[in-house]
Write a structure and sequence with these properties.
Elements: H1 17-20, H2 99-105, H3 107-111, H4 115-121, H5 124-134, H6 142-146, H7 150-173, H8 184-195, E1 216-217, H9 220-225, E2 236-240, E3 250-257, E4 270-274, H10 293-304, E5 307-315, E6 323-340, E7 346-354, H11 362-373, E8 381-383, E9 397-398, E10 411-412, E11 416-417, H12 446-450, E12 457-458, E13 462-463, E14 470-471, E15 496-500, E16 506-510, E17 519-522, E18 525-527, E19 545-547, E20 582-584, E21 588-589, E22 596-597, E23 603-612, E24 615-624, E25 635-636, E26 651-652, E27 663-664
The structure holds a DNA duplex (14 and 14 nucleotides).
DNA sequence: GTTTCTTCATAGGT
DNA sequence: CACCTATGAAGAAA
């Protein structure tokens, strides 16, 4: 995969580095850290117990609500309550004809200017929009900035991504090639750092509180924000060695291996990492690497035997152009040597060995890669595709825990079916006039207008924020099937797996790493009338029902600015459902029927409508609440019945979160 | 304190 | 997709 060269797990030429490079001799170092005999007892406070996979999540703490605001109503009957900042109504300036050349020739000069001057060059529009987005309460104190925990890490990551999605949405709505900010992730990261919304900002050796092995990231900025690796591009992060008697001694504390150099990562427990520098660039030829900066720090870490965090980066299978990073735990540098790289220049090599006893992360990814290539190699496989081809992506059925051969019989259907008699509560709406695909910035597009002017999705079908209702393009829209406003109706793209859980029956998880905001699937099944007079509210459908009229715990997912208004700021995350909907997946359904309940879930639902054959139908769509590592069980909050319908219908909850309500329905 | 330098980024193009 | 290039920001070093 990484094209590593075979057999390079040892030093082929152990010649003295000081002969090749003019460096201070390192052998004067005394191995004072750590204490002898203490090398094999790393603190595994973050390792999930009793599970080969990252085990889910600590309680999710939503963003702090505005001071004194009342608790959020869950059902909001006013669809236009949302007071989002109206940034999309602006139109970007046209670029100058030779804007590109001017820009590049000014590059050198601009580099030295203050950010203020650079900003002044941008259009007022972008500045206004960004200023509006920057106007939020940091909600993080000095202690939390220095040292985090699981809640803080999750909150910071979710707030970053909410902001990034919003910046990206603004970027998408601009005219093409207009002179606006690019790189939504950098802009969002910059705002977060400027406002001090970060955690674990104090550098440290070893475990980062709240960051667990197997956690995934989609931007280098995210690594900085939670203190895993505080270099925005460089692969080696280091810090001063405390108590060192050597002037300016620095040890490596984390490295990123992401394909930038010829690393050897065949063995999950051994990483042969290439030092930094020596690459050819626009103004420079390839050269020998020097024993400075990160390389020197790694050399010191070899002598000091300190723990080094390893983050591995891969091409994201679902978004070919971008990368996904996995925190793979603690390693130690075991040896180093110099060898000639492909350019013929000397490269430093560092052999890092994984400290034993840690939960698997990269090893899980390697297994998945094998299953992808040969699905029949999946351990415990019962059925290669339980959808029988109904979905474009197969869904294997596996059981690795007991002898059960599968769930009770049901018919697989990919979408929700309304009975003929169903009384439509929504008028069919007019389609758009967009010829090929609806454009995010087109304020004349009726589909955009129905969505309140904001295009609901950014690239790759990522949801920007929750809405009272999302209106996708329907069959009367002339735009093509691949219009970006048809995310939920084109079927799921995630490589799911239905598996037998240890204590909750069958469950759902994914082979793919999932970004926050990713559309997962809809809740398929038959729309039914309320069943009266039977045990529990669902009667014979019990356990396989979705109700839109249950009480769902409110949570904050969107980026929230102070200017959005105190009183109604949460209203945008309540729903506007014209009339309650009950879907049963008892007899027929899709993968959603296997999703279990959790009181701190990683998935949420969102109502969506689009029209088919001149009738508008409501769909229940599921989206990822946060980044979800592969093989992590997918769960959503089942909610509670509006009245205490039947206490005997409740079940003991096994979600295990500290926010667990004890029961679910 | 300020500026320059280095860096296993990204996104969008061909 | 394998490569190209424009844009770009953090932190260390100067």
């Amino acid at each position: 995969m990484e094209g590593g060269f075979a057999g390079n797990t040892g030093p082929p030429n152990s010649f003295d580095k000081s002969e090749v490079l003019d460096v201070k001799p390192l052998r004067s170092l005394l191995p004072v850290f750590p204490a002898p005999g203490a090398t094999n007892g790393p603190p595994f406070g973050t390792a999930p117990p009793n599970s080969p996979f990252p085990s889910g999540f600590s309680p999710f703490f939503p963003f702090s609500p505005p001071q004194g605001s009342p608790s959020t109503p869950v059902i909001n009957q006013n669809p236009f309550d949302s007071t989002a900042v109206p940034i999309r109504s602006f139109r970007a300036e046209q670029p100058t004809s030779n804007g590109k050349n001017v820009h590049s020739s000014n590059k050198r000069k601009l580099a030295g200017l203050s950010s203020l001057k650079k900003k002044a060059k941008r259009s007022n529009v972008s500045e206004l929009a960004l200023a509006a987005l920057s106007n939020f309460k940091p909600g993080i104190n000095a202690v939390e900035k220095d040292d985090g925990d699981r809640e803080l890490v999750e909150t910071v990551l979710m707030r970053f991504d909410a902001l990034r999605r919003k910046v990206s949405q603004i970027e998408d709505s601009k005219e093409q090639h207009s002179e606006v900010f690019k790189h939504a992730n950098l802009k969002a990261g910059n705002i977060m750092l400027t406002k001090g919304v970060r955690t674990n900002g104090r550098k440290r050796i070893g475990v980062v509180p709240g960051v667990e092995i197997g956690d995934i990231f989609f931007f280098r900025m995210e690594l900085i924000l939670v203190g895993v690796h505080s270099q925005s591009m460089a692969g080696i992060d280091f810090m001063p060695m405390q108590g060192s008697d050597i002037e300016g001694e620095r040890v490596a504390i984390s490295i990123v291996s992401a394909g930038g150099y010829e690393d050897d990562a065949e063995d999950p427990d051994v990483l042969v990492y290439t030092g930094q520098g020596g690459n050819a660039s626009a103004d420079k030829e390839a050269s020998d690497q020097k024993l400075v900066r990160g390389n020197l720090a790694l050399e010191r870490s070899l002598h000091r035997a300190n723990e080094v965090r390893v983050i591995r980066g891969f091409k994201d299978v679902t978004h070919q152009t971008s990368k996904v990073y996995v925190y793979d735990g603690l390693f130690k540098v075991q040896e180093s040597w110099i060898e000639k790289g492909k350019t013929g220049c000397n490269m430093f090599k560092y052999k890092l060995v994984r400290i034993p006893g840690q939960a698997g992360a990269f090893s899980t990814w390697k297994s998945i890669k094998k299953w992808r290539a040969d699905p029949s190699s999946r351990e415990g496989l019962i059925l290669p595709d339980l959808t029988s081809g109904a979905e474009s992506t197969p869904v294997p059925l596996v059981n690795e825990v007991d002898d059960e051969k599968g769930p009770a019989y049901f018919t697989y259907v990919s979408t929700v079916k309304y009975p003929k008699s169903f009384k439509l509560v929504q008028q069919p709406s007019v389609g758009c006039n967009c010829s090929d695909a609806c454009k995010p910035g087109n304020s004349n597009c009726p589909c955009n207008q129905k969505n309140g002017g904001d295009f609901p999705y950014i690239a790759n079908g990522i949801l920007v924020c929750r809405k009272p209702m999302i209106y996708e393009c329907g069959s009367s829209c002339p735009c093509f099937r691949n219009c970006k406003n048809r995310v939920s109706q084109t079927g799921f793209k995630v490589r799911f797996e239905v598996f037998k859980t240890r204590d909750k029956g069958w469950g759902l998880r994914s082979w793919d790493p999932i970004r926050a905001g990713t559309f997962l699937c809809e809740y398929a099944g038959e729309v039914i009338e309320k069943v009266e007079g039977q045990a529990g509210e669902d009667g014979a459908n019990k356990g396989y029902v979705f109700h839109t009229n249950r009480v769902y715990e409110s949570f904050k997912w969107d980026h929230e600015t102070e200017s959005a208004g105190e009183a109604s700021s949460n209203a945008g995350e309540a729903f506007n459902i014209p009339s309650p909907l009950i879907i049963s997946s008892k007899n027929s359904g899709n993968v959603a029927r296997f999703m279990n309940h959790s009181c701190s879930p990683n998935v949420f639902w969102q109502p969506i409508t689009y029209e088919q054959n001149n009738e508008a139908f409501l769909h229940v769509a599921f989206f990822a609440k946060k980044h979800i590592p592969p093989m992590t069980e997918l769960t959503y909050d089942y909610g509670t019945p509006p009245e205490s319908v039947a206490d005997h219908g409740k079940k003991k909850c096994l979600c295990g979160s500290s926010k667990c309500r004890g029961y679910f329905y």
